[in-house]
Task: structure prediction
Amino acid sequence: MLIKADLHVHTTASKDSLITPKDLVYYSKKHGLNACAVTDHNVLDEAYKIAKETDFLIIPGIEISSADGHIIALNVYELIPRGLSAVETVEQIHEAGGIAIACHPYVYFKGCLREAVCSSFDAIEVINARAFPFKSSVKKADEAAKRLGLSRVAGTDAHYGPQIGYGYTEIHAEEPTVESITKAIVDGKCSAHGQPVPIYLNAQQQVLRIRRMVRKFSHRDRL
Ligand SMILES: [Zn+2]
Ligand SMILES: [Zn+2]
Result:
């Protein structure tokens, strides 16, 4: 069956995200997805919590800060330590039964892997809908996928509900299960789609984030 999934979404378990579990499911459905990966920075708990609380198909994941740049692990059930080299991180992900994705490998302002992208990965995030610069990062990631023979995936790197689904992966999985989806990705039965998140949505996200910070500080002052 055809799975349409955003493979890169952060919830409020990542300090810089505004997406609550409810938002995640609501906007995934609204934007025509039938699955969504939860990929918070270096924590796993929220992903499993959401998966348990909803019947929407959640792919549990984590975005790991390796010494060489950010790496997404999908379908892992234990925390992968941060600060290891890219190759060591991928090894640990595989030992834990997960798949490793080189996310936003050629962008500015994010921890990107660049020359640390290698054939040990299972896939490359060819489209990151919040990548800067968008076009050249897609082109470089696509060339790397071809050179290394890796599967191509896409995600938004969403930190605000309405951004979900601007980057998405179509996966031909045998069944609508996490195991089947990750296997299909490894087998290359997937394709990357999407477009950049519009500037106004990124601006809204920043405004809401600042408002939330101000509220938090003024609340603290009153205590
Ligand atoms: Zn990242
Ligand atoms: Zn991210």
